[in-house]
Design brief:
The protein is mainly beta. Helix content is about 10%, strand content about 50%. The strands form 14 sheets. The protein has a six-stranded mixed β-sheet with strand order 23-22-25-26-19-27, with no helix packed on it. The protein has a five-stranded mixed β-sheet with strand order 2-8-7-4-5, with no helix packed on it. Strands 12, 13, 15, 16 and 17 form a five-stranded antiparallel β-sheet that branches. Strand 50 (about 560-565) and strand 51 form a beta hairpin. The longest helix is centred in the C-terminal third of the chain and has 30 residues, at about 610-640. The radius of gyration is 48 Å and the shape is elongated.
Length: about 675
């Protein structure tokens, strides 16, 4: 019995020895350590990498491409190479014994900073106000492009646009890339300076120094615009006055004058005239983009007016009073809503005056008393400039009433100047139209995004009649602006004599629809490992507006299936084989852009797990032991013992026979 047991134990030991040998063939007992663990270096530079292990095994060496370094029987081996090959690959290999190895691949990124960054307009012509203008930034000889970032700057502003090329196909070697910036300019942008910079960004591993383009200065051409379109000039008959026509334009405008429909010879912005009768002069300012006109009304004063300037274009009542004209207006200045009534008293402290009164197109009066009132039922004349005068023995003097006639807008509305929808990172213009408002120099337009004020604009136009004006908001939308409400608010700030509550009109809101490029979501690994015969699933999902379409590209295989769940498309490989290994490309596409990410599937040989093998061996061992015991038992029965007689006793007692020796059986 003891002999049978020993035989079973010997066979069990033999099986354990076989298991340990198998485990040694397919398993690395210690990890190879690379220092540095990965290489990020400029093309042409020399790098040194050390590969070490706890013991030297049967030798270590480097395999670079198809070239193998000499084997070293040390615990480390050093690789030094000049990075002059864009496709260089390297792995450290250690012999565990004569039949098995450990290997570790070195991740290598070879880069080259851009050789040059060039900024230029796509059309070699001046930018026109209100017309889209495109600038292009060329990045020359850069690698790898999937790590390239291009940023745009205008003047001292922070970057106004950023382009990433992470969706570019992972390539090695030099390449050229371009980024464009579309801008719609206003006259205020004339002389604006733009730059672009290119930089390689390697995330946590750092980034290269940026390469910056030269400065590009934009010349914006715009039509001529007058500072004011109407003006009233007062003077005595025979006075010489200078009429001024101030206009701005690019190119600078040319000027022409006419009187009552008759062209004059003057071509400058100023015109010298001698006042004879009431007249209307028209000035026209012109450049190749358009023209604009100004109407100047010349009014003849009474010839016996004394103490007044020869021509009045900007009355100053306080100065006239200081020269000794004893007139007081109550109130001294009025603010009147268009169409409302108005009245002002004029009084004098002069003794022995010969009469006083108001001179005005409407509401004129005369009086022998020391108080006279100017009154109108409806203020409808934008040009009204009432004069209160008093006739004294030594002549006549006067003061002019300061009137601010205002009108709230008929409407305030927001519209888009550029075709929508908005696109993330691309400048977009919104326009606020304010119709029939006066006086425009008192107007303030405020833009709101949600409840946040984002821009305020005032106007310098001195036009006193009702006009239509607009304000432009330049916005570079971001993805989180999608669905936000933009509105504008028009306020007339009329000063202390104006209404207690500032007249305000607000537009209806405009809802922003912002399209943005797909952005991959969820966890992501550039490399997915699977053992031969196992199953693996990896997915691809992205967020964008419009919602992106997800598409996988790969070499067809019988083990590969694509499933869709919500916005995610997943690749499932069942019973993986070496034919399933390779690069799987996920494209997320919408109207804005196509973005791409690559997943490399690596199919590895199935390792033998010690633990799993023991579970497989346990029943096998029990079977072997059982067979050994059975064989031993048979051997015993055949050689030494007979427990049951071949034939029953005559008395059929069934009692076993006594043991027999070999000698007795002979």
């Amino acid at each position: 019995m003891l002999t049978a047991t020993m035989l079973g134990l010997k066979m069990l030991g033999f099986l354990m020895l076989m298991f340990s040998m198998c485990d040694a063939i397919d398993q690395c007992h210690e990890e190879l350590i690379l220092n540095p663990p990965e290489v990020l270096e400029e093309f042409g530079k020399t790098v040194t990498v050390n590969c070490s292990s706890a013991d030297n095994g049967d030798g270590m060496y480097w395999k670079v491409g198809e070239t193998q370094s000499p084997e070293e029987n040390e615990t480390s081996t050093v690789w030094e190479v000049n990075l002059s090959d864009w496709n260089v690959t390297a792995e450290c290999i250690k012999w565990l014994n004569e039949t098995s190895i450990c290997r570790k691949e070195l991740k290598i990124t070879v880069y080259q900073n851009p050789e040059e960054v060039i900024l230029f307009p796509t059309k070699h012509a001046a930018a026109l106000e209100g017309t889209q203008y495109e600038l292009q930034c060329d990045v020359v000889n850069v690698s790898p492009v999937q790590h390239l970032t291009v940023r745009w700057y205008r003047g001292s502003e922070t970057n106004i646009k950023t382009d990433n090329f992470t969706e570019s196909k992972a390539t090695k070697g030099l390449a050229n890339e371009s980024s464009t910036l579309a801008v719609i300019f206003s006259r205020a942008d004339n002389g604006a300076q733009f730059q672009c910079e290119a930089q390689l960004d390697f995330g946590e591993r750092g980034s290269s120094p940026p390469v910056i383009s030269s400065v590009h200065t934009v010349s914006v051409h715009y039509a001529a615009e007058l500072k004011n379109q109407t003006e009233d000039v007062y003077g005595n008959e025979g006075d010489n006055v200078t009429l001024t026509c101030e206009a701005e334009g690019h190119p600078a405008p040319a000027f022409s004058w006419s009187l009552d429909g008759r062209s004059l010879m003057e071509t400058e912005s100023n015109l010298n005239v001698t006042i004879a009768t009431n007249a209307m002069y028209i000035c026209t300012a012109t450049n190749y983009l358009g023209d604009t006109t100004k109407h100047i009304n010349v009014h003849v004063m009474k010839t016996n007016v004394m103490g007044a300037p020869s021509a009045i274009t900007t009355p100053d009542p306080s100065r006239q009073i200081s020269t000794g004209c004893p007139l007081v207006l109550t109130p001294a200045e009025i603010v009147v809503r268009f169409g409302d009534p108005a009245s002002v008293d004029c009084s004098t402290s002069a003794k022995g005056f010969q009469g006083m009164g108001w001179e005005a197109p409407s509401g004129a009066t005369t009086s022998k008393t020391n108080v006279t009132t100017w009154r109108v039922e409806q203020m409808m004349d934008w040009a009204t400039k009432p004069l209160c005068y008093v006739n004294r023995v030594d002549g006549q003097c006067y003061v002019m009433l300061q009137i601010t006639l205002y009108k709230t807008p008929d409407s305030v509305s927001v519209s888009a100047l550029d075709q929508g929808p908005m696109v993330d990172g691309t400048e977009y213009r919104l326009k606020c139209d304010v119709t029939n408002v006066a006086p425009v120099q008192k107007l303030k337009v405020t833009w709101y995004r949600g409840n946040e004020a984002v821009h305020t604009e005032s106007f310098n136009d001195t036009t006193e009649i009702q006009v239509n004006v607009s304000s432009t908001l330049r916005v570079t939308p971001k993805r989180d602006h999608d669905g936000e409400l933009f509105r504008c608010e028009a306020e007339l700030h009329l000063g202390p004599n104006g209404p207690e509550r500032v007249p305000t009109e607000t537009s209806s809101p405009l809802k922003a629809v912002v399209h943005y490029a797909p952005v991959f979501t969820g966890s992501y690994s550039e490399e997915v490992d699977v053992f031969r015969g196992d199953n693996v699933t990896f997915g691809c999902s992205a967020d964008g507006h419009p919602a992106p379409e997800i598409q996988w590209s790969y070499s067809p295989g019988v083990h590969v299936t694509v499933t869709t769940r919500g916005s995610q498309k997943s690749i499932t490989v069942t019973r993986a084989t070496s034919t399933d290994a390779g690069v799987y490309v996920c494209d997320a596409t919408n109207k804005v852009r196509v973005v791409r990410r690559n997943v490399t599937l690596v199919v590895k040989d199935t390792p033998y797990s010690g633990k799993g093998l023991w579970w497989l061996l346990i029943p096998f061992v029990f079977v072997i032991i059982f067979v050994v015991i059975v064989l031993a038992d048979r051997w015993k029965r055949h050689g030494q013992y007979t427990f049951v007689p071949d034939k029953p006793n005559k008395n059929d007692s069934g009692i076993p026979m006594t043991p027999q020796s070999k000698e007795a059986s002979v």
